[in-house]
Amino acid sequence: MSAMVISSLDRFLSVARKLEGSGVTNIHLCYAKQMDKFDLSVVALVPFVDYVIVGEDAHNLPYLKHIITEAQLRQIPVLPEERIAAVKNK
Fold first, then answer.
1. 13: containing domain
2. Under DSSP, is residue 63 helix (H, G, I), strand (E, B) or coil?
3. What is the pTM assigned to this prediction?
4. Which H/E stretch holds residue 41?
5. Total structural domains in the chain?
6. CATH code at 52?
């Protein structure tokens, strides 16, 4: 299983440990920092993950809405960080 985590680096380390405990083996970081430039490569990765995890500090990412919309269109679960327990082995 794979997941994209949208968060700061510090938060990512904590989230990644929880995801590994749930059986997620491929974990990708989308670094949530204030950027004016839209990063299409991040949105392009969404179809290839099983989950999108939104960290508590992800609100700083200006194109967060684009990532979530792409995941919803492809029926990929979008979970807040505190709901990682819902991630199960497939």
1. 2-86
2. coil
3. 0.87
4. helix 40-45
5. 1
6. 3.40.50.11410
